Amino acid sequence: MAQIAAGFGISESTAHAYTTAVTDLLAGRAPGLLKTLREADPDCVLLEALSPSATASVTGGRTTRPSTAGTA
Asked: Cα torsion at 23, 24, 29, 33 (round to 10°)?
């Protein structure tokens, strides 16, 4: 955290808070992420994700899951 904080010119506590917030956000969108990170216990993690605009081009403009309301 000290290196992240120094790199961004923020306090260690702020770096920790931001890291926790991002991890929680990603974990909410990717079930199993926290378990995987805890099991791997990595020193460094690289997460790759498509941007919303890239996701839209892959999904034909749809950026959210289609509604399944009313389907059996």
From this structure: 60
3-class SS of residue 5: helix
Q: pTM higher than 0.90 for the full model? A: no
DSSP per-residue codes, 10-66: --HHHHHHHHHHHHHHHHHHSTTHHHHHHHH--S--------HHHHHHHTTT--SPP
Distance CA(60)–CA(63), nearest Å, equals 9
Reported as a pLDDT band with limits 50, 70 and 90, residue 57 is low
